[in-house]
Design brief:
The protein has 170 residues and is mainly alpha-helical. It has four helices and no strands.
Length: 170
């Protein structure tokens, strides 16, 4: 008896001998039927759904619109930038602690102040609120909670007074 994993010609790649049921390549599908198997879902194929941003794209977008307080900003752009800012702040704090000075954290905070305010205003515009609502953040605790709730809301569909929806493509 031969071992299926040996170099026997009837078992060319191990397993079932050629010409036997279950061996070799599967037969072609009947006419009019799709090839058996599953195609990957679009979300798993590597491409992001239309309109969503990754972290790098969101940070690039915010920094290119450094002091642009008009227009609208999607939730994904807002939250990716917030995450990147938090990560950068943690890294700056670690470096500052290692160096024994706090200059890097200070420079980072000053450098991100205007883009963060502009992004917050554009995010408020996206949900149909005036940018002046950002001043509610000056109220201790309650103001921050209100701004977080606003930042989590979905975009206003269609065009509003601050421009077309970046999500719905109006």
């Amino acid at each position: 008896m031969t071992n299926p994993t040996s170099s026997d010609p009837t078992f060319p790649q191990g397993g079932v001998p050629q010409g036997q049921p279950g061996g070799g390549t599967p037969p072609p599908p009947p006419a009019g039927y799709a090839t058996p198997g599953y195609a990957p879902a679009s979300a798993y194929a590597g491409a992001a759904p239309a309109g969503q941003m990754g972290m790098a794209e969101a940070v690039r977008s915010v920094l290119f619109q450094y002091a642009t307080f008009s227009g609208r900003a999607r939730r994904s752009e807002y939250w990716w930038f917030v995450l990147a800012s938090v990560i950068a702040s943690v890294v700056a704090s670690i470096v500052d602690t290692a160096l024994g000075v706090s200059i890097l954290s200070l420079l980072l905070s000053l450098g991100l102040l205007i883009p963060s305010l502009a992004l917050g205003v554009r995010r408020l515009h996206d949900i149909g609120k005036s940018g002046w609502w950002i001043l509610i953040g000056l109220i201790p605790l309650v103001g921050v909670i209100v701004l977080i709730v606003f930042a989590c809301q979905d975009s206003e569909p269609g065009t509003n007074q601050w421009g077309p929806s970046p999500k719905y493509g109006a």
